[in-house]
Amino acid sequence: MGSPTIRRFSLTDFRGFENLTWLPAQGINLILGGDDVGKSTILEAIALLLHPTNGYTLSDSDYWQRCVKDEF
User: Fold this and answer.
1) Cβ-contact 16, 44 below 8 angstroms
2) What are the tens digits of pLDDT across the range 21-60?
3) 42: closest CA among 64, 65, 66, 10?
4) Which of 52, 70, 51, 50 is nearest to 60 (CA)?
5) For residue 39, what is the enclosing H or E element?
6) Of the candidates 19, 25, 33, the residue with the CA atom closest to the CA atom of residue 6
């Protein structure tokens, strides 16, 4: 039996991403980029996906352009 594999990763309205779809290649994938472009956000979203019961708490600022005053 092989290792679990992410074949498609979609991120919508999370932190700095309005919409992202990533189709990782087989094997090792690198996430490269300058400061404040979303590398850690992608990794933290994957961590939330794989371990939804971890102690991480999402705040209003974690949602893309969320307008709290329009909610009840």
Assistant:
1) no
2) 999 999 899 999 999 899 999 998 988 888 767 666 777 6
3) 10
4) 70
5) helix 39-50
6) 25
